[in-house]
């Protein structure tokens, strides 16, 4: 059901949901408080809560898609606790939010003795946000390992700018995205940038992990800057590949990004 990574004083555990979603459970050794990120499925969360005797106090939502929000109502009802705080972007499509947040806002989780800052990341959806604390970022469907989210609502320029906000974070920052898409993403990445040695090595590592049904997440900002074609629009090989796919593609980063995003959509 889950795997665990410990960062500073917090423990982050992945609760697997649906085919390839990760719902992130944030806990602390100090108490039994639980914060959930993007709980699309209430049932797997309730199983996790009961297994570890946890007290759900906060829910953090990155965007309005149902596989990220579908469990809110049932979880709040299950806890019978009116103090469950549900944070999310300022979007009326998300039912059950108690706190709507914007760029630069701070979310304080007293039970976990930590704070998360908010970055707005339009692209995959227009309402998408990320939660950042110390050396971790919960970025939903904006940045994946080896890839990025489809542009369902935003423009290539918006997504390129949003990804730049993430790559500005320290390279050791742990990236907690919401899907296990890494192996498929790297197949595409290797087509775009076949001579990237670090990508080749990372792809071998990911293949070994997936053969053992192990998660490839979290990744890091540093790894992604080295292997992810959507963060490498200034790479000569990525530029050449984008122009091969779309001969009308210009050499600027947004045009290159747009070309490889369109290519990935049809890969």
From TrEMBL:
Binds 2 Zn(2+) ions per subunit. Pathway: Secondary metabolite metabolism; methylglyoxal degradation; (R)-lactate from methylglyoxal: step 2/2. One of its GO terms (molecular function) is hydrolase activity. The keyword Cytoplasm does not apply. Residues 20-179 form the Metallo-beta-lactamase domain. It catalyses: an S-(2-hydroxyacyl)glutathione + H2O = a 2-hydroxy carboxylate + glutathione + H(+). Pfam families: HAGH_C (PF16123), Lactamase_B (PF00753). Monomer. PANTHER family: HYDROXYACYLGLUTATHIONE HYDROLASE (PTHR43705), HYDROXYACYLGLUTATHIONE HYDROLASE GLOB (PTHR43705:SF1). This is Hydroxyacylglutathione hydrolase.
